[in-house]
Design the sequence.
C-alpha cells in the first residue's frame, strides 16, 4: 500500500463531523476503494497525527468501537466519542442516529 492511499484515507477521516461516526467500509469507499476496509484499520492504527485525524470517529460496520484502539484502548475511544455527544452503549454506537451520511 502506498503512502498516497493512507493520505486519501486520512483526508476522508478529517471530514467526519464532530458528533458523528463513519465505518471502516464507508471511509474505504470514500477514499477510492470499498475493499480497503482493512487498509483503513491499518492506516488509523499508524495515524501520524491523532490530534488532527480523528480516528476515534471510525467504528466497524456494526457500530462497535475498536477493541484495539491504538491511542489508549476502547475505553479511550468511547470517552472521546462521548465527549462529542455520541452515545456509546455496550461498546456500540447507533449508526442510524450518529452515522455520517
Sequence:
Amino acid at each position: 500500500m502506498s503512502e498516497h492511499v493512507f493520505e486519501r484515507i486520512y483526508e476522508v477521516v478529517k471530514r467526519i463531523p464532530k458528533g458523528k461516526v463513519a465505518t471502516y467500509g464507508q471511509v474505504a469507499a470514500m477514499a477510492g476503494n470499498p475493499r480497503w476496509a482493512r487498509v483503513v484499520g491499518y492506516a488509523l492504527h499508524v495515524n501520524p497525527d491523532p490530534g488532527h485525524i480523528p480516528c476515534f470517529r471510525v467504528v466497524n460496520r456494526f457500530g462497535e468501537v475498536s477493541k484495539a484502539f491504538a491511542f489508549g484502548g476502547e475505553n479511550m475511544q468511547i470517552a472521546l466519542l462521548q465527549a462529542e455527544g455520541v452515545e456509546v452503549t455496550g461498546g456500540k454506537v447507533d449508526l442510524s442516529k450518529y452515522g455520517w451520511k
